[in-house]
Amino acid sequence: MDRLPKLIVSAALVLAASAGSFLYARGARKPFSSEAPGYRTLGPADARITIVEFSDFECPACRVAEPPMRSILKLYEGKVRLVFKHFPLERMHRHARAGAIAAECAGRQGKFWEFHHELYDHQEEWTGDEEAKLLSAYAKRVKLDEKAWQACRVDPSANEAVNADTKDGLNAWVGSTPTFFINGKRFAGALQLSERGTLWIDKELKK
Amino acid sequence: MKIPPAAGLAARVLVGAVLVYAGATKAAGPSEEFAIIIGSYDILPREMVMTAAAFLPWVELVLGWALIFGLRLKETAAASGALFGAFLVALGMVKLKGIQLPNCGCFGDAIHFTPLQALAFDSVLLGLCWLAWKSAPAALSLDSWTEGGYTDPAHGQR
Q1: pLDDT beneath 50, residues of chain A
Q2: % of chain B with per-residue pLDDT over 90
Q3: Please, which residues 23-52 of chain B have a Cβ atom closer than 8 Å to chain A?
Q4: Who among B25, B35, B142 is closest to A25 (CB)?
């Protein structure tokens, strides 16, 4: 065989090995649900834009993403539906699961978003030593039925709801929080959301 | 200085395997995640970060396999060395600027190195790239097949 065909075969071998190792590392695509109970969604069910947010209440970057997200919801009111999914990063944040369960239980009383705002607005307070006391204080502030809320927090179903969302996040290759999927397109972190999120929404709305 | 063929082969397979692992783990994951880490180095213009995050893992993958198979070994070893040199400069600039990186981003989410560990690791790999470069042309390589045989540089004989 001449030199050129051999070079072409060699280059093809290198490219094939590269593609093969990529496919092996990616593994099989796992399905994930972008749905959540109604109390963890905002906006009309038939909105043209669906934003799925995987978030952790103890994550400072998630708190930073709150203002741009609130601006987007205000700017595209009626056109956007937000779906909140729990993704507590327990390796780094030891209060994250407690926060997620507390919010989940507030949601079951129809007060998810009020509790969500309390957790982000006071993130530096409740993620310290007074977690239990402060979570109860927020529950009182948003006027939850505290007895039912406390019972829900120890009910395995609340924990299972957080686990189900976390599994969805892992299946969707969520590696950091916050991660947003706007009509399926991924935006990792507040910066990507602020810089490119609205451009993408405008593009989707023009379709 | 003559490099024993076995040392050259070991060096290029080792560096190649590291590049393949690093490239595959990052290429398989979402480029948006890798873009966050590239952005935190604060070196590239913001509009280039997403492109770099999508492109760099594939450069690592292709260079890694080219090293393992010994395709255009001299050029591939030089390009890999340049890549590790660039990583070292980036890590040095991060240190100088006092940027706190939680993770160097070398292997995506698979293995977390601190910037200092990454500096040491990349320096060793840069040295191995030099060994691989010095060992070219190599017997067990696609170069040897495409050129019709192995020429021992010391003797000029096939």
Answers
A1: none
A2: 58
A3: 23-25, 27-30, 32-33, 35-36, 39, 46
A4: B25
H or E segment and range at residue A8 = helix A3-26
Q: Is residue B100 part of a domain?
A: yes
pTM: 0.82
Q: Chain B window 86-145: which residues touch A at a Cβ cutoff of 8 Å?
A: 108-109, 142, 145
Across the interface, of B33, B142, B147, the residue whose CB is closest to A176 is B33
From the number of C-beta atoms within 10 Å of its C-beta (0-12, 13-18, 19+), residue A158 rates as: buried
Q: Is B44:B99 a contact under the CB 8 Å cutoff? A: no
CA distance B103 to A142: 38
Number of folded domains in chain A? Answer: 1
| Distance, CA of B84 to CA of B14 (rounded, Å) | 14
- ipTM field: 0.87
Calculate how close chain A gets to B15, using CA atoms only, in Å: 15
CA angle B76, B36, B83 (to 5 degrees): 15
pLDDT grade for B152, boundaries at 50, 70 and 90 = low
Cβ of B62 within 8 Å of Cβ of A25? The answer is: no
Upper half-sphere CA count for residue A70 (Cβ side, 13 Å): 11
Which amino acid would we find at residue A71?
A: S
Q: Which residues of A touch B68 (CB under 8 A)?
A: 17
Host domain of residue B133: 5-146
Does residue B14 form part of some domain? yes
Question: How close does chain B come to A190, measured CA to CA in Å?
Answer: 10
Q: How confident is the model over B11-30, as pLDDT tens digits? A: 999 999 999 999 999 999 89
- Is A145 within the bounds of a domain? yes
Residue B80 and residue B85: Cα distance in Å, rounded?
8
- Domain total of chain B: 1
